Structure formats: C-alpha cells, structure tokens
Amino acid sequence: MAAFVSRVNDCDYCAGSHAAVAEIFGMPEGLLSDLVENLVGADVDPKMRPVLSYIRKLTETPSRMIQADADVVFAAGWDERALYDAIQVCCLYNFMNRFVDGIGLAATPDLYAPWGKMIKETGYDGMPDEFGIE
Fold first, then answer.
1. Distance (Å, rounded) from C-alpha 119 to C-alpha 115?
2. Distance CA 91, CA 37 (A)
3. What mean pLDDT is predicted for residues 72-92?
4. For residue 34, what are the contacts with CB-CB under 8 A and spacing of at least 6?
5. Pair 96, 64: CB distance under 8 Å
6. pLDDT class for 133, splitting at 50, 70, 90?
7. Least confident span in 10-14, 59-63, 89-93
8. Quick one: pLDDT at residue 114?
9. Domain of 61?
C-alpha cells in the first residue's frame, strides 16, 4: 500500500524504496506499475482491489469519499479494522510523499534495492544513519 500510494503520487523515492521492500516479500516485479495503470486488470488478489481503489480515491480526491466506498471494501470481506489500517497507511504515505518531495530527497534506481533490504531488515531505524542524521 505504501508503494502504491507513493506511485499514485509520483513520489519516485518512496515508491521505489517500498516497491523494493514489497518485491523482497514476494511481490512480482512490475506489479506496482500494473496496479497504478490498470487496477482492474492487474494480477493481484481480487480481494485487494477494493482496498487499493479506496486508498487511490482517498489520495486523489479525499473530499469525494462516501460511505459506499467503504461498503465496497466491507463487501470484499474486510472489516473496519482492516479499512482503518489501510487508511492509516494511505494517510502516512501521502504525508511522507509530500515531505520527501518538499525537502527535495531524490534517489536513483540503483539505491532502491539496498534501501528496500535495509527497511526489511531494520525497519526505519537505519534511516538516520543512511542520511547522516544524528
């Protein structure tokens, strides 16, 4: 979800890093682009489509969210806690994408895999060291 929201927002830094993490955990390479380009046709668990559709709408047009959007997620078998968690991830990455873009962080694709590995192994604890922050 972090990579998806970040790609919807065109935040290469976050999308690339989190796609690398997702690929380490088994997401097929290229699936993220497929999801953003054609969510309905992408090779993803059908149960995830309403969640991804929900967080895309929340990212792109938050003032247009209605109860029916949540109802589609619930109809797919998700409960309120799962939707709440998806909303939190969506909100966090909308914030982070704007933060990263706002301070001008940029990355080259050759850094995504090492960052993805670091995030998987240590979480975000290694980030201050990576950026020289004390």
1. 6
2. 21
3. 98
4. 41, 42, 43, 44
5. no
6. low
7. 10-14
8. 80
9. 2-130
pLDDT band at 126 (very low <50, low <70, confident <90, very high): low
**Cα dist. 41→28, 36, 38, 70, 91 in Å?**
15, 10, 5, 21, 25
Number of separate domains in the chain? 1
CATH number where 12 lies:
1.20.1290.10
- Measure the CA–CA gap between 86 and 80, rounded to whole angstroms: 10
Q: Which long-range contacts (CB under 8 A, 24 or more apart) does 47-51 make?
A: 47/76, 47/77, 47/78, 49/76, 50/75, 50/76, 50/78, 51/1, 51/76, 51/78, 51/82, 51/83, 51/86
Q: What is the distance between the alpha carbons of residues 85 and 88, in angstroms, rounded to a whole number?
A: 5
Average pLDDT over residues 4-12: 95
